[in-house]
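Researcher: Next sequence.
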Amino acid sequence: MKYLLDSNTLIYASQPEARYVQCRDWIERESVAISAISRAEVLGFHRLTETDAEFFATVLRFMPQLPITDAVLDRTVKTRQQLRIKTPDAIVAATALVYGLALVTADAGFARVAGMSIINPLL
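Model: Next structure:
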């Protein structure tokens, strides 16, 4: 694995608009994974439709999911201590850092996390 997909990349990939085609391309790569927290985020998305739920069920069935280990939690705590960042985002950032993966996200806020390698899937 080389890349960790952020929840927003998965959510955008589920949308039919042409501007999200790059996000759909990312979910088809073999070298990608998600954090366990992203599973909760996408399935708990407040505007989740039945079509979206089916899409995510299919994607999540085949995409590797990285666990929230003690090392990830320790890094999450350090990130939260250093930055004002939401816990789910801190977990995603920590997962990428602990596993040595580039984060594929459209959220510019991750740039504040030291040591992050970020790829914006919308560019």
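Model: Helices lie at 7-13, 21-27, 36-43, 50-62, 70-82, 87-99. The beta strands are 3-5, 32-35, 65-66, 102-104, 118-119.
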